[in-house]
Amino acid sequence: MKKIVSILVVLITITSQAQNKKWTLIECVQYALENNISVKQSELDLEAADIDRLTAIGSFLPSINASAGVSENTGLSFNPVTNNAQTTTFLSASGSINVGYTLFDGLRNIRTVQRAEISKLASQYRLDKMKDDISLFVANGYLQVILNKANLEVLKSQNEVTKEQIQRTNDLVEAGSLPRGDLLEIQATDASEQQAIINAENSVRISLISLAQLLLIKDYETFDIEDEGYDIVDVGIADKDISEILSKAKESRSEIKIAEQDVELAKKDLQIAKGATLPTLSAFFGYNTRYANTTSFTQVADPDNPTVTQQIGVVEATGQSVVGEFPNTILQEVNADPFVDQLYQNDGIGYGLSLSIPIFNGFAINGNIKRNKINLERSKFQLEQAELDLESTVYQAYVDAKGALKSYEAAESALESQQLAYNYAKERYDVGLTNAFDFSQSKLRFDNARIELNRAKYDYIFKLKVLELYFGIPATELKF
């Protein structure tokens, strides 16, 4: 019984720890990269590209095919061994092995392998981009939860101050030092703060659910994150010149690499299309054999009367007959040779070369070449557009990060000012030199300043990480 109780205690402890688990940002990112559907689809695309590469390599190997057949014939049929027409029932079998090898096909097989290598590389870049995008989505959702929790803490801490003020104001009202209107004003402020706390709690819950859905986690009720230890960590990217960041982005970003590989793919497609205008030379080798269980007839000497005498002519001068002796044969039925013997008795080999020269095919080859030329030009334009888009995005991220830093610094200054104003108003209110309404307004401005500082802080953290990502730092190595 004690063992059972111990096991139950351990299980309850493990379950409690699992339910109380708080996810770190790194854990969320890693989990998303392992379970996100879009990432899994990109990984499947990479596997498919690897299969295409293997198939392309297989074009350098000979093709080997074997065939076999068994049939039973009744009535008048051609014996596949003797090629004679027979009216009988017999069983026949045949088999063959054929080997083919392409000696030259306009270099299309070589370029197909090269194209498969490029396609695999492009799929890898697409997977990398998908992982970067998912990591940013997770980081943004994670920081949103932290922001909402920080705002909730601000509201709760300030509401504690309000409750203390309610008690102090009530005592002063009871003593006749303050009018009852001041107490009502503070109580109204408390009610508004309680409503704001409820809204803030809903925001935290909604942002947690949104993050859990992004991670494909179904347990919304117990899902929570580690909301401590995250601060502004600048590794020096924000101080770099925009030209350096842009240059690094063009070297490292997957968007450019994908567009570059698309250009290379279009070039290979054009080369493959042009290869169709050249002759194709193939070699082939074939081996075949056959078997039939039909009986046959052959001429043999009559053992009872091996020879016969027949007249073969007449002597013209005397009229005397000329006779000759000939073998006397009879038809004798012969059984079919054994199966194994027939396999090598009836086998045959064929080999040779095959040359195919394209002359006219209804403009199909020329049309395909022209289409691939157009695709090549289109891919070049897409590469140019990708570079322009990246340049615009990097500039926007750079400006956003600089602007977010200024906004954060301004929010810090505003909070310092509001802190002094609030402390001054509180001191005046405590000694009865200001009314409850003015104190409430000062406290509201202080609360808003703290909330704005939280917003500016996490907004700057996110935009700084976006800039670092464009500088080439992997999403899994971003520091918070």
Automatic annotation (TrEMBL):
Pfam families per record: OEP (PF02321)
Coiled coil (residue ranges): 242-276
What does the similarity note say? Answer: Belongs to the outer membrane factor (OMF) (TC 1.B.17) family.
Its subcellular locations are: Cell outer membrane
Fetch the SUPFAM superfamilies from UniProt: Outer membrane efflux proteins (OEP)
Q: Does the keyword Lipoprotein apply?
A: no
Name of the featured protein: TolC family protein
This chain's source organism reads: Psychroserpens algicola
Q: May I ask which residue range the UniProt record assigns to the signal sequence? A: 1-18
